[in-house]
Write a structure and sequence with these properties.
The complex is a heterodimer of chains A (326) and B (187).
Chain A (H helix, E strand, L loop, with lengths): L13 H17 L14 E6 L4 H13 L3 E6 L11 H11 L3 E6 L4 H7 L7 E6 L5 H16 L20 E5 L6 H12 L3 E5 L15 E3 L2 H8 L3 E4 L15 H8 L3 H6 L5 E3 L12 H4 L6 H20 L6
Parallel strand pairs in A: 1-2, 1-3, 3-4, 5-6, 5-8, 6-7, 8-9
Helix pairs in contact in A: 1-5, 1-11, 2-11, 5-6, 5-11
Chain B lengths: L2 E5 L1 H19 L5 E5 L4 H15 L5 H4 E3 L31 E9 L3 H11 L6 E9 L11 E5 L7 E5 L1 H4 L8 E5 L4
Parallel strand pairs in B: 2-3, 2-4, 4-5, 5-6
Antiparallel strand pairs in B: 1-8, 7-8
Helix pairs in contact in B: 1-2
The chains are: A alpha/beta (326), B alpha/beta (187).
EC number (chain B): 2.4.2.9
Family (chain B): Belongs to the purine/pyrimidine phosphoribosyltransferase family. PyrR subfamily.
Enzyme class (chain B): transferase
């Protein structure tokens, strides 16, 4: 499948997804080398176009582009021409005039990266780094990469020199718990995990599930304790409760949420002994995840951060090299 | 299209054996030797060379001698050619610092792959010396690069194609043995 931009997790079929994970496995080895840099994108320019603050995602993409020797321009909407009223179109055309080779975009509006890729304002490949409550495909890829490593061992790609494709996540059960409604991470993860053969269970209060969730390729439960007993998951992914949404009556108060849907020490013990705990970060300790779970040896939170760079290197390499890129 | 076999299985085996002896002779033994194959077909060739060396020199473990060195990221045509699959790079546990590294490839042609391999190597460490072993040298160099160990020098026309088939990499395509083929060129 010829991938020209990465806008949604549904842009990836199984083969492309596995190829990206295998590529990320090679990218991960660069961190352990004497020279932590590859020359693959030398002389090319990547713009981080962030209309919404996200230091973690931006530095992850920045580190990835720099390890591939690309030049990086960071464009934050705050204090820029955007705050003076410049439209997405004018921003895009400005970047095109400067001659950029790839654009990483984070935007509060769902669909903004799609508009950027389709409108013909610029030819460069677009990578969606999170749009509104829609998608965050590289986060889903890094979660899949992290899971594949703990379930299949490192590296989980094909044996050296054989060129064989690596493994997928067939047979794994992953539970995603919390604010699915506002979570682009959940949306992208459900699709990616499904594409890779895992079965996905969403657990959330009914008020925090989006319309049409029954058409998603996953199962839905409302009670976390029952769901843990029913599915005995290989991994639990806790979603961040965004404190600014507390007053919107999705649930009565934070303490009740924690009691019913938080990953407490007791629920950590109720999980199978070999289950993994994931969180896209930043964590609200004591709200959706207890300190006991966040600091347990089963927690993969820091692995997820570390793997983010390798997965984003793979994505940039895949989109910015080859004759079908510009 | 005209196609002919220029090296058969026995000739390839003899060439590999001879190169193994040459490497040992030049290195005055197997100490501090690392064989790095360039994917795809350099990797099984490096492994065969290491096994041959282990057969000649007692106490040598072929596994500890061999690795693979992917050069995809270091190529000079990443923007022009189609997207290339990246292969694994694996270096023996002892590393390459102060070792004699023998790069192993199937065909030496323009020399661009070896140029890329030298860059890839420099990012991994600092070998004491780097040597080059190839199964076939077909000429038409575009870089000032030469091989130290050559299985067969093969004068070719630029329009011809040289293909190496090895049972480790090409069994799926119906090749049961090893051979080197030339395709095309003048009748």
């Amino acid at each position: 499948m010829a991938l020209t931009s990465l806008l949604s997790a549904s842009d990836l079929d199984r083969r492309t997804a596995v190829e990206l994970l295998d590529l990320a496995e090679e990218m991960a080895t660069v961190a352990g080398r004497e020279v932590k840099k590859l020359p693959a994108l030398r002389g090319r320019t990547v713009v981080n176009l962030f209309f919404e603050d996200s230091t973690r995602t931006r530095i992850s993409f920045e580190a990835a582009a720099k390890r591939l020797s690309a030049d990086v321009i960071n464009f934050a909407a705050k204090g820029s021409s955007v705050s003076k009223g410049e439209s997405l179109q004018d921003t895009a055309q400005t970047l095109a005039a400067m001659g950029v080779d790839g654009v990483v975009v984070r935007h509060p509006g769902s669909g903004a990266p799609h508009r950027l890729a389709q409108a013909g304002w610029l030819e460069a490949p677009i990578i969606n780094a999170g749009d509104g409550t829609h998608e965050h495909p590289t986060q889903a890829l890094l979660d899949a990469f992290t899971l594949r490593r703990v379930l299949h061992g490192e590296p989980a790609s094909g044996a050296a020199g054989t060129g064989a494709d690596g493994k997928d996540l067939a047979g794994a059960t992953v539970m995603i718990v919390g604010d699915v409604l506002h979570s682009r991470v959940a949306r992208s993860n459900v699709r990616t995990l499904h594409t890779l053969g895992a079965s996905v269970v969403l657990v959330a209060p009914a008020t925090l599930l989006p319309w049409g969730v029954e058409s998603w390729p996953c199962q839905v439960r409302y009670d976390l304790d029952e769901a843990i007993a029913e599915f005995a998951p290989d991994a639990v992914m806790m979603l961040r409760i965004q404190l600014e949404r507390m007053h919107q009556a999705f649930f009565p108060n934070a303490r009740e949420y924690t009691r019913l849907w938080g990953l407490s020490a007791a629920r950590l013990h109720a999980l199978p002994a070999d289950a993994w705990v994931m969180h896209p970060g930043p964590m609200n300790r004591g709200v959706e995840i207890s300190a006991a779970a966040a600091d347990s040896p089963r927690a993969l939170v820091l692995d997820q951060v570390a793997n983010g760079v390798a997965v984003r290197m793979a994505t940039l390499y895949h989109l910015l090299t080859g004759e079908d890129s510009h | 299209m005209r196609q002919r076999t220029v090296l058969d299985e026995h000739e390839i085996t003899r060439a590999v054996t001879r190169i193994a002896h040459e490497i040992l002779e030049h290195n005055k033994g197997p100490q501090d030797l690392v064989l790095l194959g360039i994917p795809t077909r350099g990797v099984p060739l490096a492994r065969r060379l290491a096994e041959r060396i282990a057969g000649i020199e007692p106490g040598v473990d072929a596994e500890e001698l061999t690795g693979s060195l992917d050069i995809t990221m270091y190529r000079d045509d990443l923007r022009r050619s189609g997207r290339r699959k990246v292969h694994a790079t694996s270096i023996p546990a002892a590393g390459i610092d102060d070792k004699t590294v023998v790069l192993v490839d199937d065909v030496l042609f323009s020399g661009r792959s070896i140029r890329a391999a030298l860059d890839a190597l420099a990012a991994l460490g600092r070998p004491r010396a780097v040597r080059l072993a190839v199964l076939v040298d077909r000429g038409h160099r575009q870089y000032p690069i030469r091989a130290d160990h050559v299985g067969k020098n093969l004068p070719t026309a630029a329009s011809e194609r040289v293909d190496v088939r090895l049972r480790e990499t090409d069994a799926a395509d119906g090749f049961t043995g090893d051979e080197v083929l030339i395709t095309g060129g003048e009748e």
